[in-house]
Amino acid sequence: MRHILIRRFKYLRDEILGTLIVFDNEGKVLFNCMTLELAYHNNAKNKSSVPTGDYVIQLEYSGRFKRELWELKDVPGRSECKIHNANFYRQLNGCIAVGTRHTHINGDGVPDVTDSVRTLERFHAAMGDSVTAYIDILGMA
Q1: Using CA atoms, how far apart are residues 87 and 90, in angstroms rounded to an integer?
Q2: Which residue in 7, 24, 114, 130 is deepest, having the highest Cβ count within 10 Å?
Q3: 83: domain CATH number?
Q4: CA 93 to CA 78: how far, in whole Å?
Q5: pTM
Q6: What is the residue range of 103's domain?
Q7: Percentages helix, strand, coil for the chain, rounded to the nearest 5?
């Protein structure tokens, strides 16, 4: 079973930057990338990153995105917290975006993530045939 680790390392007014690493069941690193999340706002639905902690994550079809996505389960008071593609924090409603690096794309002075669509595909490939995994989110919030 795959294990995912997110390490949040930079906390800005509107967003959190981090890294995501996928491990196999023997601890070997299979994939890593950058993450982008909303800032923590007391776990408010659609306005906050999820609290730090350990969660089960499942591959499920998303009607909104019209594709299979990984969804964090049993987030207190929340549902539909997914890992998906997005470049800007304004494209998130409490989910986690993945990309190759943090940089300024749109000139607003706030870091974004690049190459999110391709990074999401690489993440899905690293997850292999798994449909359930574990995710640990470390850092504040």
Answers
A1: 9
A2: 130
A3: 2.40.440
A4: 11
A5: 0.95
A6: 3-138
A7: 10, 45, 45
